[in-house]
């Protein structure tokens, strides 16, 4: 949800607008609940915190006033300390309503003691009140401040009807756990979608769940955007070498040393701790010379072959994720090696480039934690058996990946055909193109970053390196595959700004760090 919310900004849909929609939806639901539950007009008390959840409360207040309700707002965070810019904007509007004709009272609660003096605390007969909990939503972190704990206690002790905005304050929106104390609402108004933790917590803790539409288009969930960067875990202060990703790249032959190196440079730029490249002797020396940050394992032979199996299984034991294929060439011996490797290795794997031409689709069908990264022609070749089995040869044969001048039905149909094929395997399929399409089961993501200068050789190797790095950093295969297309395309866009059509794939890694940092 946090990712989707930020991705709306990439579509030009601002958080301020979403907050307005949220507040309006909340006021509509409160009005319904009030006529449903009470025989006479009720008074509304809204508790607000320092973030977006409180902001929703301020907007709801404005709409509730127009519906004729009397509204008291208890600001647990004084106005000058409110952190969310959009909340600030909305509380300022309420402050500007002065001298006021609307029935609104704003109370800034500076310390816990002030809470003892408020109306709700003084009387326990608040059965004709609705309390709206806009204290904490999806942004909750760490221990609750004393003032917040006390406010939650007061809310729970009152016999008003309690309604939480988005998440009952105090509850972890991902796990549903209440570490200290949480509001026990009669209803929770979930914005856009019910957060994972609320489903886990159950109605005892959330009250009745009502979903409020706030105008987020489904595409904000499908298109990759800056919000998806939030999927990456924060590094722990206590972590040490090796805790943040160990990647193995298996590739290269006597003709190709660049491909595995480009994958390696991009993987390192995602922040992985250790990067191993296992390559035949013929290419390993050259690969070593590209970067002092690579740990290069030199394997016997001019190309990858079955005699390398034990060495590779040994190195694989020590890493978190493995990329198979860049620059490996198409030797029969390499084919044998790869097909045994994918059967034996249980760790997250990415298969790219020559790997896709050599590995049998049937051997990887049931692998969950797997990413393949074909462009459309490679996709057709890799899945040819499945395409024949499903009798889709004619339709796929004439298909391209362009969406220009198509209506939504034609777009649906095009995607449905591809999905019929991709859903035959359990891993993630990243089909590279102007728009990258990412499939896993019934899920689809689309990436729109990137530019025509990226048709230069090696950008796919960079993408595969990024996907493998993200797997090693703990993301699942769908998120790794999807986010890798966004990062690779975005770094390509920044590289284009600097180098124009002269950009080279080895330069993409230069920009990855700054995208992640932002
Ligand atoms: N797309 C949407 O769903 C929209 C949701 N909106 C609402 O915004 C919140 C999320 O807003 P955010 O500012 O990220 O977080 P919170 O309001 O939950 O609060 C964060 C705020 O509180 C402080 N804080 C965090 N932890 C604690 C703590 N343990 N004790 C005290 N204070 C704490 C923190 O410093 C922040 O300042 C979402 O739930 C929706 O309600 C928007 O309206 C837009 C659309
Ligand atoms: K809340």
From TrEMBL:
Its cofactor is K(+); Mg(2+). Its EC number is 4.2.1.136, 5.1.99.6. The lineage of its organism: Archaea, Methanobacteriati, Methanobacteriota, Methanomada group, Methanobacteria. AMP binds at residue 460. Residues 224-518 form the YjeF C-terminal domain. It catalyses: (6R)-NADPHX = (6S)-NADPHX; (6S)-NADPHX + ADP = AMP + phosphate + NADPH + H(+); (6R)-NADHX = (6S)-NADHX; (6S)-NADHX + ADP = AMP + phosphate + NADH + H(+). This is Bifunctional NAD(P)H-hydrate repair enzyme. Pfam families: Carb_kinase, YjeF_N. (6S)-NADPHX binds at residues 52-56, 137-143, 166, 259, 327, 375, 461. Belongs to the NnrD/CARKD family. In the C-terminal section; belongs to the NnrD/CARKD family. It comes from Methanobrevibacter curvatus. It comes from the Archaea. CDD domains: YXKO-related. Catalyzes the dehydration of the S-form of NAD(P)HX at the expense of ADP, which is converted to AMP. Together with NAD(P)HX epimerase, which catalyzes the epimerization of the S- and R-forms, the enzyme allows the repair of both epimers of NAD(P)HX, a damaged form of NAD(P)H that is a result of enzymatic or heat-dependent hydration. The keyword Transit peptide does not apply. Binds 1 potassium ion per subunit. K(+) binds at residues 53, 133, 169.
